[in-house]
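Example 4.3 (complexes with small molecules)
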Amino acid sequence: MSEIKNIAVIGGGTMGNGICHVFAMNGFNVQLVETKQEFADRAMSTIEKNLDRMVKKEKISSDEKDATLEHINPNLDLPKAVSNADLIVEAVPEVYDLKKKIFEQVDEHAPDHAVIASNTSSISITKLAACTDRPEKFIGMHFFNPVPVMKLVEVINGLETDESVTELIMETTKKLGKVAVPANDSPGFVSNRVLMPMINEAIFCVYEGVATAENVDEVMKLGMAHPMGPLRLADFIGLDVCLDILDVLYEGFKDPKYRPCPLLVKMVDAGKLGDKTGEGFYKR
Ligand code: 3HC
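Answer. The structure with 3-hydroxybutanoyl-coenzyme A bound is encoded below.
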């Protein structure tokens, strides 16, 4: 496989629609795969809204916006959508059984040359690769939210990922105007192994009454030049996602330093998941 042109993105949620956006904006043909028409419509309208924002900021022209939208084909038929793909990027919720089912289906219907990538933030790439008969063509492509803005793609090699596949994905990432940073498969990879303990420690500061959420965030924004404080960022990422990732770190390393703060567990139990439910450490 020398060049990637046709992409299928499975899942049109926050990460999936952003991934479609950047591939299409850079001239790739994209199939946006969803399970229901209303989800596909919602993904397309989010992409359009984010493209409008870029037109307003004069980052792209309105012709480029139209061309981007023309490069995306919403599709409810997964087998058909992947049948002509050179690269499939999975971006469905972080549920192993769901991903396993999808990878088995993708593996069956995608061409032999196709590379399969997962945008998982925490599940082992090696374990996901084992759901297919092509672990050498399986890789992690970890994008960051908001995808059209964040420059990084963490490229994660599973145990059996072929070196040529890593090179191809690193090259393809460059064509998106992003920077690919390679890492080997390990719980949390690099990004979440470093980020989540910081967020967890910020939650402990609130839990132990060291400071309010606002003050913890102010310290990190003004003292460390973070664009968002860790608690505002936790709301943005989703408190359930943060808890899932901390659980993966805790289970993966069997090290108590990764234990999730009881306040985080309580907030997730209460359904206060951050921006997506309208309340986390902050109200939206
Ligand atoms: N699509 C397109 N453009 C967008 C956008 C979107 N969804 N969201 C924001 N933008 C653009 C804006 O147009 C603006 O462009 P400009 O610089 O040319 O004016 C720029 O991004 C900044 O946006 P705003 O001025 O509206 O707002 P802020 O200055 O507050 O920036 C932010 C917003 C970019 C989200 C910034 O706060 C930030 O960088 N926060 C940190 C985000 C972060 O850490 N993300 C990683 C999360 S971890 C993750 O995803 C991994 C997972 O595994 C957990």
